[in-house]
Design goal:
By secondary structure, this protein is α+β, with helices and mostly antiparallel strands. The protein is built from 8 helices and 16 strands.
């Protein structure tokens, strides 16, 4: 089993993390290691890992780094016709995917566990297949792959998070996201609607069916089981790989609805008729003027921006 490691030197707290992991790997010269300091260097780094015939790729970075890796592998075929197993380490500001897979808090311990499992033949016990979101957007049909999509309030919250905590990499991650999200929910619960909570006009079709409401406060989609802070805000049914939840501008009794929504067990009054939508679909198509995010990577507002979400690719993720 050929193991490789891609480390993003700019993934928040990752400089120390990279040093610690590389120091550990001095005792494992058979592991192929590459480091990048920008997204632009990603294709070259992955090409080297592909040339080295890496079968299990550990990613030492956060969700944004993982998104770039998945985009290169699935969208640009960095490994040609094959897709390596992928093991996200908890080395970035936000690590939703790694957390969902149960990765160890310490990237060095996670890497050690991967190597030991490969050596002992127990890697299969750590494999967790996940469908990966594919966002195709804009007039040039650009593509991003990742595990989480957010529009409306989520996009604005991440933008605000980056502005407020631009000097604090840790707070740009889960801590800051949790703090701001909690504050926004509290404001919505007391009836505030302006500013960052202002609804956005969205034309939406789910599996070819138009959605009646044209204004949404928030749209999120994922193929993960849980999001940051343990949130599980999906309760839709159906076999589709895109789990999507949206809150409209006419949503009722938000203060009473919020706790159940965040746990994925909404109260009986929470329904599409009362302004809350949650479905599992094969394809979600949207057109709006607001921006969106895929795994923390921001795509800015654009008039009439079209986005098509699918989840046709499945990756064999490995718990690190």
């Amino acid at each position: 089993m050929r193991i490789g490691l891609l480390s993003n030197l700019r993934a928040g707290r990752n400089i120390d993390s990279v040093s610690e992991v590389l120091q550990f790997l001095k005792g494992h010269p058979d592991v192929v290691t590459v480091e990048t300091d920008s997204a632009k260097a990603g294709p070259e780094a992955l090409a080297e890992l592909a040339r080295q015939e890496v079968e299990l790729l550990a990613v030492n970075g956060g969700d944004g780094t993982l998104s770039h890796v998945l985009t290169e592998i699935l969208g640009h075929r960095a490994f040609e016709d094959r897709v390596p197993m992928v093991a996200p380490l908890r080395g970035g500001r936000t690590n939703m995917s790694a957390l969902d897979l149960g990765a160890h808090r310490n990237p060095v311990k996670g890497m050690a566990d991967l190597i030991a499992a490969a050596r002992e033949g127990t890697l299969k016990e750590r494999i967790a297949p996940r469908q990966v979101l594919r966002a195709e957007y804009g007039t040039s049909r650009e593509i991003l792959y990742g595990m989480f999509f957010g529009g409306g309030m989520i996009f604005k919250a991440i933008e605000l998070n980056h502005r407020l905590f631009k000097q604090d990499a840790r707070s740009q991650g889960v801590f800051g996201a949790t703090l701001i999200t909690a504050g926004l929910i509290a404001r919505a619960c007391v009836g505030q609607t302006g500013g960052i909570l202002e609804a956005n006009k969205v034309q939406m079709m789910l599996d070819g069916e138009p959605v009646a409401s044209g204004e949404f406060r928030m749209i999120i989609a994922s193929s993960l089981t849980r999001l940051f802070a343990g949130m599980r805000p999906f309760w839709g049914r159906g076999p589709g790989g895109v789990k999507l939840t949206a809150i409209t501008s006419t949503s009722e009794r938000i203060s009473a609805a919020a706790p159940g929504i965040l746990r994925g067990h909404p109260r009986p009054f929470v329904s599409e008729e009362s302004g809350y939508l949650s479905r599992n679909v094969d394809c979600a198509e949207m057109r709006f003027d607001c921006g969106f995010t895929v795994d923390g990577e921001l795509v800015g507002p654009e008039a009439g921006l079209s986005v098509r979400l699918t989840a046709d690719d499945t990756v064999q993720f490995v718990r690190a």
